[in-house]
Structure formats: structure tokens, C-alpha cells
Design goal:
Structural class: alpha/beta
Radius of gyration: 18 Å
Largest sheet: 6 strands, mixed
Strand content: 15-25%
Distance between the termini: 36 Å
Number of helices: 11
Shape: globular
Number of strands: 15
Helix content: 25-40%
Length: 270
């Protein structure tokens, strides 16, 4: 059962200020949102989100772990207040939840066996070589693979980042598609394994570039908190605070963006 926003623009921000706490949904995917060795929720999205919520008058943060494919259903069911997982903004997802403007835009890459024996470089090469591509369940990459014509039998779906890496190592898939940032972060946790990250690329589906721009998700109708969140995010982008907070997780000026949720939701970003 979904939880609807009350009144015009919603009242979530007022409720969070009154409670002093925000429940942050995440999927335990480095570098976007994960629990560190100290048991603290951190990563690109949580750190940017925490700073913005502090500026909005909310100082306590409660992590709520979910499978990536369960983040939107969990948000709609009221299990948490915001998705803080670096979730890509797509028209299909915009039909279900409210998105803030993106705080990053990252290209994709393929995780490959060392030496890249099949010569894979992007989605087109996966089609051409009749390769098996690994994707995470509920991810945009799963949809991209299907949309470019890769048969379902060659789309290998994994529940999370770690199992996807294991799948390529075990030859259950010929590659795994995620952002380059995500793959670099994952390999950094597994020194010495016989895998490598290929060159970055922007997926093209039906002639349209598919940007890897992620933001924060709120329930439909909660436009008041989205507007306030966007105002603080824009100030942090201008000051360089977004880059300062995300640099420790592998982000650089190249991933900073001025794309908007409106353009990404309507498919007009260019």
C-alpha cells in the first residue's frame, strides 16, 4: 500500500523537521551508498544527502537497506523517506516517484575478464559478439540490454554488485555493466582478481543517449521538499561542496553536472 503526500506540495519536510530524523533508503552499492567498517551509512548519495538535510534542519539519519529493485516500492510503501542510492533518473522511474535534480552524471563501463578475450567495449559490441551481459536486477542496464536487442537468455541478472562480480569470475556472464565508478569501487575491495574495467561509454538506445545521472527520490506529491532540496543542492554545486563531499568516493569534476530532473524525466536531456 503506497503512502500519498498530504496537501499541495506535501508535508514531509515539516514532519522530518519535527521528528529531527530522516530514514534513508540505500542498496549497499559502492560508491553510491553503503555501510562502512564503522557501521555508518556513507557514500556519494548519503553524504550529499546528509549535508542537504542538515541545511534543511534535519540532523539525524537512519539507514534503511533494501535490494535495489525494492527501493521504489519501499519508498512508496513508506518504509523510508528518501532514496539515497545514486538512482538514475529515467522517464519510467519519474512516473513512479519525485526526483531531485541530479548531483552527478557518470558514464557506464563493462567489467571484463582480464585481457578482454571477447573484445567487448560497449552495448553494441555485446550484441555483435553475442556475449552474455550481467546486469543488476531492477537496474537501467537491464532495460538497456533488452532495448538494444540482446535476447533474454544472454541477459544475466544478479541481485547485487558483489554477486555480479562473482558471476563474471565464474564465467556465468562475459561482462557486467555498471558505472565506471561503481566497478572501480568494487574492484578496490577485491585486490588481485583476474578482472578489469573497460573504457567508459554513454549507452545509446534507439538513437538516444542514456545519461547516468542520479538523484534523490521522494514519494509522489512531495514537491515542496524536492524544491527545497534542489535549492540547497544548487548552492552546493556552485560552491564546489558537492565535489568536495564526493571526491573521496572517486568522483571528479568530470562527474559534476547541470542536468535537470525535468530534462531527464522527459527524455530531452542533451
Amino acid at each position: 500500500m503506497s503512502v500519498a503526500a498530504d496537501g499541495e506540495g506535501g508535508d514531509l519536510l515539516n514532519r522530518l523537521r519535527d521528528e529531527g530524523n530522516v530514514r534513508m533508503g540505500f542498496a549497499n552499492e559502492r560508491p553510491f551508498g553503503f555501510i562502512n567498517k564503522e557501521g555508518v551509512l556513507t557514500g556519494e548519495a548519503p553524504e550529499v544527502g546528509k549535508e542537504i538535510f542538515r541545511r534543511l534542519g534535519v540532523d539525524s539519519f537512519e539507514p534503511k537497506l533494501a535490494d535495489f529493485s525494492s527501493l521504489i516500492p519501499g519508498l512508496k510503501a513508506g518504509l523510508f523517506d528518501v532514496i539515497s542510492a545514486g538512482m538514475y533518473i529515467t522517464p519510467a522511474r519519474c512516473a513512479e516517484i519525485e526526483f531531485t535534480n541530479p548531483d552527478y552524471n557518470a558514464p557506464a563501463a563493462l567489467l571484463l575478464p582480464r585481457g578482454n578475450p571477447m573484445g567487448l567495449s560497449d552495448l553494441d559490441s555485446v550484441v555483435e559478439k553475442r556475449a552474455r551481459i550481467g546486469v543488476l536486477t531492477g537496474s537501467v542496464e537491464e532495460g538497456y540490454a533488452s532495448d538494444v536487442g540482446i535476447p533474454g537468455g544472454r541477459i544475466v541478472v544478479f541481485p547485487d554488485q558483489s554477486s555480479g562480480i562473482d558471476g563474471v569470475l565464474a564465467n556465468r556472464a562475459d561482462c557486467l555493466m555498471l558505472t565506471r565508478l561503481s566497478l572501480d569501487a568494487a574492484l578496490g575491495q577485491r585486490q588481485g582478481i583476474a578482472l578489469e574495467v573497460g573504457e567508459t561509454f554513454v549507452p545509446i538506445v534507439n538513437g538516444v543517449k542514456q545519461y547516468g545521472a542520479g538523484g534523490f527520490g521522494f514519494r509522489k506529491g512531495e514537491t515542496a521538499i524536492v524544491d527545497e532540496f534542489n535549492r540547497e543542492l544548487a548552492a552546493m554545486q556552485r560552491s564546489g561542496d558537492v565535489l568536495r563531499l564526493t571526491r573521496p568516493f572517486g568522483f571528479s569534476q568530470d562527474e559534476m553536472t547541470d542536468l535537470t530532473a525535468q530534462a531527464l524525466c522527459t527524455g530531452t536531456a542533451d
